[in-house]
Design brief:
It is a single chain. The protein has 341 residues and is mainly alpha-helical. It has two domains: 5-119, DNA polymerase, domain 1; 146-333, hpI Integrase, Chain A (Orthogonal Bundle), CATH 1.10.443.10. It contains 13 helices and seven strands. It has helices at 38-49, 55-73, 83-96, 101-119, 146-157, 162-173, 177-182, 235-244, 263-276, 284-297, 302-309, 314-321, 326-334; strands spanning 5-9, 20-24, 188-189, 194-197, 200-205, 215-220, 229-232. The chain has a three-stranded antiparallel β-sheet with strand order 3-4-7, with no helix packed on it. A hairpin with a 4-residue loop joins strand 3 and strand 4 (194-197). The protein starts with a strand and ends in a 7-residue tail after the last helix.
Length: 341
């Protein structure tokens, strides 16, 4: 070990191997321990978030802090944190915990905010820490082919019930699973042929220590301001809505009753549907990807599609949700014949 370096063994967790992080200590501060370890400032930052952010966002932050940041960095004195420590932490998440690059990036973004908050307590002392985010090697999303889509739609229409109808409605509109679970009939206008997305449903960790269960169902505002939107219905979707309406506007669309169906139950139902159809690798978000892809194939204007999907920018629509099918690629390649290629 070089002069001025000290080794910190992070707390052993039952599900982790021991991981050691090294750091060159500044001589001027090596003998001055801080009053609190970094875990204290993580908790203080999270408490400040609860006053201004949605509960679902706070639960997401709490999960990252408790599962990843505290176990690795919580025992550190704040002034001993630096770029080398954070880089080793990032590698530990990637290679020891085997997390996806996108997940690691989300954790590091949260860590960056906590570090910025912590620096307030150490004016002119807290080190400036640059964080390098791992590159997200995004996999191509699963999209139903035209033939798969036909098989799936025919399956849903056969002996259709409220749940099958809801899944088909998601394929016809691109709505998210939480939005569908929270959707009530009063948000579907049969006179204007529209759906108004005004809520989403999530199962979240219950942050109330006195609560009887570990998780709870929360129905709240949509993911973002742009997620609250009105979606025009196609004539096919409008006819289906008129056919399936239970005559009770306050009923949930997925059950036709006042009781709801939660997202994980719906995902289980979907897995059974796709298995019956012989389809592989289909999750609920596949329906959203498929809807977006079909819209591009028929020539949707991207701004319009972005608003229907509830995205804040068209970049998100193009980069994450639009996947050209091989048929579309072939048709575009054939256009080269017009210029002699």
């Amino acid at each position: 070990m070089r002069t001025g370096e000290k080794t910190f063994a992070l707390p052993n967790m039952p599900h982790r191997s021991r991981y050691t992080l090294c750091r060159a200590l500044p001589n001027s501060r090596a003998d001055v321990p801080p009053e609190h370890d970094f875990a204290y400032y993580c908790d203080e930052w999270l408490a400040s978030c609860r006053k201004r952010l949605k509960e679902s966002t706070c639960v997401k932050y709490s999960t990252m802090i408790e599962l990843h940041i505290k176990p690795w960095l919580g025992a550190y004195p704040p002034l001993l944190l630096n770029g080398k420590v954070v880089a080793a932490f990032s590698e530990a998440l990637l290679y020891t915990d085997s997390l996806a690059p996108k997940t690691v990036k989300d954790i590091l973004v949260t860590l960056r905010s906590i570090l910025k908050y912590t620096a307030i307590y150490f004016p002119n002392e807290f080190p400036s820490i640059d964080i390098a985010y791992p590159r997200d090697t995004r996999k191509e999303m699963r999209v139903l082919s035209r033939s798969e889509q036909t098989v799936f739609v025919q399956y849903l229409l056969h002996d259709i019930d409220p749940c099958k109808f809801g899944v088909l409605l998601a394929l016809l509109t691109g709505i998210r699973i939480g939005e569908l679970c929270a959707l009530r009939w009063q948000q579907i206008s049969l006179s204007e042929n529209t759906i108004r997305i005004a809520a989403t449903m999530q199962r979240l960790k219950d942050m109330d220590a006195s609560a009887p269960g570990k998780t709870k169902i929360l129905i709240g505002p949509p993911k973002s301001d742009t997620s609250a939107r009105t979606i025009p219905l196609t004539s096919q979707a409008a006819r289906l809505c008129a056919r399936m309406h239970p005559g009770q506007d306050t009923a949930f669309v997925l059950t036709n009753r006042e009781s709801y169906m939660e997202p994980r139950t719906l995902q289980y139902r979907l897995s059974r549907y796709v298995q019956d159809c012989g389809l592989q690798g289909v999750l609920f978000h596949t329906l959203r990807h498929t809807f977006a892809t079909r819209c591009v194939e028929v020539g949707f204007e991207i701004k319009t599609l972005s608003e229907i999907l509830g995205h804040s920018t068209t970049t998100i629509t193009l980069d994450r949700y639009v996947h050209s099918s091989i048929e579309l690629k072939r048709r575009n390649m054939e256009k080269l014949a017009a210029v002699g290629l």
